[in-house]
Design a protein that fits this description.
It contains eight helices and 24 strands. By secondary structure, the chain is of the alpha+beta class. Helix 6 packs antiparallel against helix 7. Strands 11, 12, 15, 16, 17, 18, 19, 20, 21 and 24 form a ten-stranded antiparallel β-sheet that branches. 21% of the residues are buried.
């Protein structure tokens, strides 16, 4: 009997000793949130402030790191099955990766004295990576022998609107007492024109003439940065400008490309307004993607556009005090622009289908657009559609 009692005591001591060892598991109390001065975060070598991450380590084999609002289009990204190594005291290190067909996110971090130093690497593996240019400005970018691209992808179908009045009053053939032309003819276009002179082809033609003068190329880099080579609208110099790396970041998620814009850096000023645009854009502006051989199409549809119509009053407020602008064949006034914005808002919200975006093709060197002939081309195009 004494031997049996001694044996049970030994088993009991072994059991409690085992429990005591489990209590000393160095990972069980490591779960914590890190932000502010408790977090030093870098993404592809660049420091990011104002971020937050969460570390969860309930046991040695189940450690997870959550990145909050760091990767475009993935506001809550979890990296599971981290490899964790204990250091002295409550300090530790970890390493892990989250990978799919479009991108790879890897992390390497260490917690020392309650401060997390986190190096995050982001690599895009999608087919969008590369240097692109606007479609429709080179003989080399035809998708087929029959179809030549426009830089603008624009599809519109509506059963509620038949015409669109553009914000331009055309010259009606009359002059005032000082022999100045009188602009009194509204510029009205039908939505569906059997002759190809409707609203959609008009917009496509204007964009085809105008946009290539200002946007030369777009590069979607492997590190998630979007680099644009462009000409400033009010710049007299022909020297192209370069959008600074990191100003616009992107990611591809489930067939969409998400763009995160550093609004403050881009505008060089505070963006305080009646709505928080930075919060609105923090997760990324989503664009649908169509990727084919020789074509990258990024666009928004009606469902994406309608929520932004709530900001139309703000846009109208920005143009309400604009000075009249004379163009070759007409005059643009604030009242015309405001009315046009109202019409566009109604058109979008009631349309059966709207798609609007850019057609991009692989970049090649092409001759520069002759800006001196633009005025003539614009005038000819306006008059063609006004007839």
């Amino acid at each position: 009997m004494k031997n049996k009692f001694l044996f049970l005591m030994i088993l009991g001591l072994a059991f409690f000793a085992s429990c005591s060892d489990d209590d000393k598991d160095p990972f069980k109390n490591y779960s914590a949130d890190f932000s502010g001065d408790k977090l030093a975060l870098k993404l592809n070598g660049k420091e990011f402030s104002g971020m937050s991450v969460s570390f969860n380590s309930k046991n040695k084999k189940n450690a997870t790191l959550t990145l909050n609002a760091l990767i475009p289009g993935e506001p809550v990204l979890e990296l599971t099955n981290l490899v964790v190594e204990e250091l002295s005291g409550d300090d530790y290190t970890f390493i892990g990766e989250n990978k799919n067909d479009d991108r790879t996110v890897s992390v390497e971090g260490s917690v020392k004295s309650g401060v997390l130093s986190l190096n995050t690497n982001f690599k895009v593996t999608s087919k969008v990576v590369g240097k692109w240019m606007l479609g429709g400005i080179s003989e080399l970018d035809n998708v087929s022998d029959e179809v030549s691209l426009s830089p603008l992808h624009f599809e519109l179908s509506t059963s509620t609107v038949e015409t669109v009045t553009l914000p331009v009053m055309l010259f009606g053939g009359e002059y005032d007492e000082n022999n100045n032309p009188i602009y009194n003819t509204p510029f009205v276009l039908s939505i569906d024109d059997a002759n190809g002179n409707g609203f959609v082809p008009f917009v496509q033609n204007i964009v085809k003439m105008l946009l290539p003068q200002y946007l030369y190329s777009i590069e979607l880099k492997e590190n998630g940065s979007l680099i644009a080579i462009y000409k400033g609208i009010n710049e007299d110099s022909d020297e192209p400008l370069v959008l600074e790396e990191g100003m616009v970041r992107y990611n591809v998620v489930n067939g969409q490309i998400y763009l995160v814009i550093d609004i403050t850096s881009l505008l060089g000023r505070s963006t305080e307004s009646s709505f928080n645009i930075e919060e609105m854009l923090s997760n990324g502006i989503p664009l649908k993607l169509q990727i084919e051989e020789g074509l990258l199409r990024a666009y928004v549809d009606k469902d994406m556009m309608v929520p932004f119509m709530q900001f139309m009053p703000i846009v109208k407020g920005l143009v309400a005090d604009m000075e009249p602008v004379n163009i070759i064949v007409g005059e643009i006034k604030a009242e015309y622009v405001v009315k046009f914005l109202d019409d566009i808002s109604y058109l979008i919200t009631t349309a059966d289908k709207v798609e609007l975006g850019l057609n991009l093709v692989p970049y090649v060197e092409v001759p520069a657009v002759n800006s001196q002939s633009f005025s003539k081309m614009f005038g000819n195009t306006v008059m063609k559609f006004a007839r």
